[in-house]
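Office hours follow-up: a student asked to see two folded examples consecutively, so here they are.
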Amino acid sequence: MRRKLYFLLPDVAHCKKLVNDLQNVSIKESEIHVIARDDIPLEGLNKASELEKTEFVHGVEIGAGVGGVAGMLAGLLAIVFPPAGVILGGGAVIFATTLVGASFGTLLSGLIARDIPNHELEKFQDAILKGSILLVLNIATQQVDEITKLIKKTHPEADIGIVSAKMTS
């Protein structure tokens, strides 16, 4: 299981120092993402991708689930009330309609969710617009206490935001 930690930093220099300190304690660059205003140069820092800044992943997950259930129900209805003169094989129809429904739901919700800003980042938008840098860590749950203590000790200027659960391994 992994957790996301959010830290607001006053400027790029503090952010680079903190990233360097994190890499010195074995945090990989792929686990560190930085978000700032477009006019702030972030050379040498791992900028957050659109996947981290939008609800795309969440939307795809929801779409696959809802589409799969809708497809399965459509398959069940087709078996219970078959079109006139058509004989349907139960398992194959349900499997096919579930797969089609999940695929359609994934595609549609992904297209919609790619334009929706990540709701976890809304709390930080005002600070980012004022010039602060948001550092996002996606680390293993067992590292949370160690990393939080390190940052509080070595970077008191860092404003620790929210900690949210992410159910990935």
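And the second, which I mentioned at the end of office hours:
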Amino acid sequence: MDIVVFDLETTGLSPYSEEIIQIAAVRMRGGSIIEEEAFATYVNPGRRISSFITSYTGISNAHVQHAPVATDALADFSRFVADATLIAHNGQRFDMPFIREACLRNALPVRPVGFIDSMAFSRKLWGGRGGHGLDNVMARLQLGANGARRHDARGDVQILAEAVRRMWGRLSPDFHAWPLPPGSGVLPM
């Protein structure tokens, strides 16, 4: 079973008016994180990044100045993903809409891809108790950042992949069965 855990950073919260500025991902197979199969790129949003976003993510205009534009970055990400199922945290409400809208804005043809929002793992494990944001999940799993920067896609992907591995292991200890059925997302063709 081929899984790609991913995260995006953006210029703001609305997929309709904001842009992707970073994509990071790591592959998982059989419950193991394959560190050497990782993907990371900054994305040139074609506009200035606000000082608030820079302070929140650590991503500055200098980081994205010579980065690929969204069409190229998303095409590279799609090639990396291949036929894997995607997992993102709060991805149903954030990451997948950003990808879908970037594809629409740039007239990129899309293909369907399996997708799971890892918040569903959290809800299945802990029900309605407390929040299900990544910080809450980290606290429940006693998972530290281990030097990874939060709100930088590369750091969040490292943390999320370990959180997914631990939650999936609790839901399906043999890692051969999906603990939840995948939904669908889109990526560029």
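Two things to take away from it. The helical segments are 51-57, 61-64, 70-81, 95-105, 119-126, 134-141, 153-171. The longest strand covers residues 32-42.
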